[in-house]
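Contributing new records

If you add data, match the layout below exactly. Sequence lines come first and carry their own label; structure lines follow with theirs. Keep one chain per record. Anything else will be rejected by the validation script.
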Amino acid sequence: MPFNFWLVCTCLGALLLTEAQSRSIDREEQSLGDRVHRVVRDVASSLIAPQTESATLTRVQRSQVLLIENKCVSNTSCVDSKFGTNVPSDLVHCNADSGLCVCSQCFVRIDNTCEVIAPLCRNYSLDTMQCVENRKSQELTFLLSVFLSSVGAANFYIGDYVLGGVQLGLLVAAIIISVACICLPVIAIMCVEEEDDDYDWGECCVTVSAVTGLVLVVILVFAIACWWAADLAIFAYNGRTDLNGCPLIADL
């Protein structure tokens, strides 16, 4: 009996010792895995961080770096060769102190070089060596909207032929309906060949046609007047662009 008890105790002790060693090994492996994971993460962070910082620097300070690297040395170095070498200094010149190109009128500085970014609006003429304005005049557009808005003159001038055509169509429709208001009663009287003693059909036709035409004329005239007022406000504020998308010359 004592021998059996001792054998059981020995087996249980061996099992407990084996379980404890197994758990210790698992903890060591887990700890080793955590350490490896931390080391890999630190290495990856050290590799990625400089790239991210460099990318941020390139994004934020790209223009300044380019300006430092591309300092101009003469007026000729400020313009592209396609514009020639005799661009007037009042349009493009090099600031010797800062090394920056100074651009005016139709030129815009991009990476310390004067470029024409909107040739449909303003362009540089190689013949006259001056900037040429291709934009429409705000003053002329406003005057056309004041006196000839009903025929769409202002919209035709800036190249918006759709709106100009609609305005002209409304005016033509108002004229046609006004003429019809005068002619329809006469036609209605001529079409009534027989009159009923109890009811005057001719007078009824005249009244209906005249009232209908008058209502249509009032609606069209009201629409034309509202459009005229809207055009005045928009062109006075210079809130429209021409066919090429260029803003109007603010000369009002």
